[in-house]
Hints:
This protein has helices spanning 3-14, 29-37, 41-58. By secondary structure, the chain is mostly helical. The protein is built from 3 helices and no strands.
Amino acid sequence: MSLVIRVVARLFLAFGETVTGFDGAPMSVAEARVYADRGWGRWVLVAAALEALEQAQSQPAQEPPQDTPPPTPTPTPTPTP
Length: 81
């Protein structure tokens, strides 16, 4: 498998895609930054996207407040005869 194919496969894994026939680890933000630092402009966006994804995954899921009452139903007007 060529280097380019391996890099792309690892990138797909980092974004949660399935890559059949590839057992490698997902690409990290640090690795994407290495490519960006080489002056490869597209990798700047890739590194930023991976960083945003990593931050979103590291934050705990927000649960709705438990003390909020259920919404009050809106009354429907009834026609008068």
